[in-house]
Amino acid sequence: MSAEDLVIGPWGARFRGRWFPCAVGRGGIGEKRAEGDGVTPVGRHRIEWVYVRPDRVWLYSPLQRRAIGHRDAWSDDPADPNYNAPVQRPRRLSHEAMRRPDGLYDIVAVLDWNRAPVKPGRGSAIFLHVWRAPRRPTEGCVAFRRRDLMWILEHWRRGGRVVIRA
């Protein structure tokens, strides 16, 4: 581990000498086995880019940023050739809309979980995003208070990793 890493455990997260409460998957932290298992995967992950709702959030970050559009979605269907990748709606295969009315995805850091190479069914869409409520479990992502997630991403340095420990 490096001083640049965001370390996440069942107790919360630590980054740059600060502690942050967070929520993890309803299946806990462990070895991810399948799509929909609710597990937050243990390991060292890289942030590939950050999605932002520009109509709701202004975020400065050294990470690559992409605006979330009305048609943006993420494929979560193991039968989809674009599984675990950004896609456009409408589409007939299962997917998750990135533009949500509830604000959970106003800021989304995309982790490299199961991205290169993609293994269908191993699990998709492990994100850092805004939480629904304090410590309310996610479907496998890691969720933070909006202001905490913004602070983390604004202070991110290239080479940093998201380290998830059981």
Question: Keywords for this structure?
Answer:
31% strand, 5-stranded mixed β-sheet, 166 residues, mainly beta
Summarize the entry for a quick read.
With 166 residues, the chain is mainly β. The chain has one helix at 146-154; strands spanning 6-9, 12-15, 18-20, 29-30, 40-41, 43-45, 47-52, 65-67, 72-75, 86-88, 95-97, 107-111, 127-130, 142-144, 162-164.
Q: What would you say this structure looks like, in words?
A:
The protein has one helix at 146-154, and strands at residues 6-9, 12-15, 18-20, 29-30, 40-41, 43-45, 47-52, 65-67, 72-75, 86-88, 95-97, 107-111, 127-130, 142-144, 162-164. The longest helix has 9 residues, at 146-154. The protein has one helix and 15 strands. The mean pLDDT is 96. The protein is globular. It is mainly beta.
Q: Main β-sheet: number of strands, strand sense, barrel status? A: 5 strands, mixed
Mean pLDDT score, rounded? 96
* Overall 3D shape: globular
Helix content: under 10%
- Strand-residue proportion: 25-35%
| Number of DSSP-assigned strands | 15
Low-confidence runs = none
